[in-house]
Design brief:
By secondary structure, the protein is α+β, with helices and mostly antiparallel strands. The protein has two domains: 82 residues; 132 residues, Immunoglobulin-like (Sandwich). It is 46% helix and 26% strand. The strands form two sheets. It has a five-stranded mixed sheet, covered by helices on one side. A four-stranded antiparallel sheet has the order 1-3-7-6, with no helix packed on it. InterPro entries: CopC/D, CopC_dom, Cu-Rt/internalin_Ig-like, Ig_E-set. Keywords: Copper, Membrane, Metal-binding, Signal, Transmembrane, Transmembrane helix. This is Copper resistance protein CopC.
């Protein structure tokens, strides 16, 4: 009788340990996803991504889901004539980047990096096309001389960093929240390990109790019935 009770207790312990592991793992996943989705996002840009313009523009604007931090915000515009480090103005959630008068048509690419309201840097890029202009032929003749070898395409982050070094701007100092983000990510990654260790410990305790119950059950089989009743 006692052996059966002990087995039920062991089974209950194992079930509770497994339930806690599942619940804990789910909570860690939800918290990690919520943290990742908390960063600000680009809502729109002017010109829009993929837009086809009749005339060149001198500035672009980006609107985000929340106010961004001016410090560390960079915009690089790749024009048919070359790369231009834009003059950035931040007003709440809107970033305006001026890159001077443009007179030629072709493909334009905008690579941006801003610090969101929660202190984490985010990056992205978009592109638009300008129709051919009257000065395009003169520009083509001027560029007929041997040109430099094309530079391989790079990611948004690397393009901005390289441009900052070339212009003497230097890389932006990492914000304290960036370090905090890394620590939070490391902490979140260790949570499943802790739950796994707890599960292993609970199973070990359950197995030990089960073995002890079975051993005492076998010992009681060889006793006199009156002795068992006394136990």
């Amino acid at each position: 009788m006692r052996g059966r009770k002990r087995m039920r207790v062991v089974a209950t312990i194992v079930a509770i340990a497994m339930l806690l592991t599942v619940v804990g793992g789910t909570a860690v996943s939800v918290l990690t996803a919520a943290s990742a989705s908390a960063h600000d996002q680009l809502l729109s840009s002017d010109p829009e991504d993929g837009a086809e313009l009749d005339e060149p523009v001198e500035e672009v604007s980006l609107t985000f889901s929340a106010d961004v931090i001016a410090e560390g915000t960079q915009v690089l515009v790749t024009t048919p004539s070359g790369d231009v480090e834009a003059d950035v103005t931040v007003e709440g959630a809107v970033v305006t980047a001026g890159f001077g008068e443009q007179t030629v048509g072709g493909d334009y690419a905008v690579t941006w990096r801003v610090v969101s309201s929660d202190g984490h840097p985010i990056t992205g890029e978009f592109a638009y096309t300008v129709a051919g202009q009257a000065g395009d032929e003169a520009s083509a003749e001027a560029s007929a001389s041997p040109a430099e070898e094309p530079v391989p395409a790079a990611s948004a982050e690397s393009v901005l960093e390289e441009s900052g070094e070339a212009d003497g701007l230097g890389a932006t100092e990492p914000t304290p929240s960036s370090t905090t983000d890394a620590e939070e990510t490391a902490g979140a990654g260790s949570m499943p390990l802790l739950y796994g260790a707890a599960l292993i410990a609970a199973i070990g305790v359950a197995v030990a109790l089960l073995m002890r119950s079975r051993r005492r059950l076998h010992e009681s089989v060889g006793q006199d019935p009156r002795d068992r009743d006394q136990d």
